[in-house]
């Protein structure tokens, strides 16, 4: 109980950071030309998934499989063991020997199917089979899988998954929001010359410092006003 309360407080304290990171991300992607061929291919991948999701079917089973697989991978990365692994079209679950907020929340900010494309692309490049056509297909699939991840993750979040409740709802949302932005920035960096992960992180850090400095100044100002009011009231 105490841990959940502390994480809720931490989430509230981190809300200004989430705003600062979002501002840095907006500045970064604003530099992308929507007329570039690269952006249009990515856009077509996103649109293709949205059309399938809306008009044909929702690949929930595939999402749940990836979701639970990321839980398992995160557990192994943290030195734990997977005791049981269950996936069905209506949901799934993984029982592990340990848990923490990284294990609980990682499926919400790791687009596993997009990540799986990276070694595939690297392998084709090393085999000398890359080219404009292959690059276009790969970029289309990046847009498709990213849309898949974000649309179904949004649906999962609306159901208030137990993972979020265990880690503290506000804290979980802040972590998921910030981590997803960093992941998107990292994915975009190789494809758009105007996007830089290093530049984004630098801007995000600077924005965060500015936001907290502003809040601290406002708190001091409010405290001074309260002190002045008390003195004027004769307390």
Q: Mind explaining what this structure looks like?
A:
The protein has 235 residues and is mostly helical. The protein is 76% helix and 6% strand. Helix 1 packs across helix 9 (197-232). The longest helix is centred in the C-terminal third of the chain and has 36 residues, at 197-232.
Q: Report the C-alpha radius of gyration, rounded.
A: 22 Å
Low-confidence stretches: none
Largest sheet: 2 strands, antiparallel
Q: How many strands?
A: 2
What structural class results from the helix and strand content? mainly alpha
What are the secondary-structure elements, in order, as H or E?
HHHEEHHHHHH
Spatial strand arrangement across the major sheet: 1-2
Separate helix tally: 9
- Indicate the mean pLDDT: 85
Write out key terms for the chains shown.
globular, 235 residues, two-stranded antiparallel sheet, single chain, mainly alpha, 6% strand
Compact overview of the structure:
This protein has nine helices and two strands; from the N terminus they run αααββαααααα.
